[in-house]
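Reply to thread "Modeling small-molecule complexes from scratch"

Following up on the discussion above, here's a worked example others can learn from. I took a protein sequence and the SMILES for magnesium ion and predicted the complex. Inputs first:
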Amino acid sequence: MKVSFKDIAASTGGTLKSGNPDGLATGVSTDSRKISTGDVFFALKGPNFDGHAFVRDVLDKGAAIVVVDNEECLKGLASTASAIVVGDTLKALGALAAHVRRLHRIPFIAITGSAGKTTTKEMTASILSISRNVLKTEGNKNNLIGLPLTIFRLEEAHEAAVVELGISEDWEMERLVAICAPDVSLITNIGRGHLQTLGSLEGVARAKGPIFSLLAAHGVKAVNLDDPWVVRAAGFGGQMVTWSAKDKEADVFIEDSFAEAGLAGARAVYKVGGKRVSVKFSAPGLMNGVNGAAAIAAAYALGVPVSHMAQGLEAWTPVKGRMGLIRSGGLTVIDDTYNANPESMGSALRTLKEARGRKVAVLGDMLELGDASEKEHAGVGRLAAELGVDVLVAIGSSSETTAESARKAGLKDVFSFGTKKNALELLKRILHEGDTVLIKGSRGVALEEVVEGLRK
Ligand SMILES: Nc1ncnc2c1ncn2[C@@H]1O[C@H](COP(=O)(O)OP(=O)(O)O)[C@@H](O)[C@H]1O
Ligand SMILES: [Mg+2]
């Protein structure tokens, strides 16, 4: 990426306070610890930091120019320092990314939803990669900082982009859509994630809805017909590609999907525009059959040949911490530790049900549920009992409710711990050959430590 100081100022609505308008920045950074020579540094403010405090430091480290929204930090800098003053550095970061996106006239697919965003993004990129050079979101770079950083990785060689859009506040989606200007938009599902800030399913749908409602006129909505909130968010009018596990009239119909015995993957048969596509997924979990339909719908909306769908989906492998299988010492561990909300807990427990041998669920707290927390943890406990879990190990303060509710629903072997350490000690004592252990909890609970503990 190369962008002139005057273009940065123009696209961000900023003022070039000092520096040569024809000066060039060759990269973008928001983290003063990761400065490369030639970077434009955006001084962002976070809950625990303020980038303005590092302006002198990043210039010493070779940043070409800094973008700030408080001029105080420019006082006393060398006269050679280049700086742009803007109204809001986070908005400016987005505005520069929108400018760069406009320079790359390639199709963008934008994916959001309460669960399955990353998996569907990976699957879609895998299908598109059969015939194109694809830029895709890496890691968890799906918010108002991550999306711009993803767009700054665009190169001339890229022929398409698949980006994940993640929000926790109801004003964020509008800005994410304005930055990436998608050609195809997709909502995987509307579920009870971030209820603390979004309040209700209706609140979640309203907050994610702009990915559809702000789509350009030529844009295509990829719509999950099986989720009434998604259907409502899609509204009427505009171009649509639909997918469904129930409605045969959908453009992408999941004719059949089943789990291979013993978690040896899953199979799905789709009808795409009247053609049959049969896929064998390497990772377990029926939800991947649904995510596969979403990915096919998004690729189909871009005119990708149906013949690429199976090849692309079979080349897909799960991202770390999403339903990854670890077989060691006669145990099968399902590492689903990346995150958890009531929807993803449900689909993970349904996958555990497919396992052979004893089924052990190690479930940690689901965070950011606000007032709904108690009710949702109780729901997970009940579901674990209903789905035939043999042993439940609950970790965390909210998970005591999970444990209590499971006991009430008839699950006998239930243990509840405040710490991962104590839970791990019990697991090492009670687990035996042939057991399958699902480990899942919110990001903040970091249950990968339990996975590591069992691996040793
Ligand atoms: N379509 C789906 N519906 C419900 N749960 C799902 C779905 N896809 C994935 N999951 C669950 O959510 C977890 C996180 O998946 P991921 O693709 O990373 O979602 P996100 O990016 O939305 O957080 C998975 O490990 C799985 O347990
Ligand atoms: Mg994700």
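What I'd highlight from this example: The longest helix spans residues 89-103. The mean pLDDT is 95. Questions welcome below.
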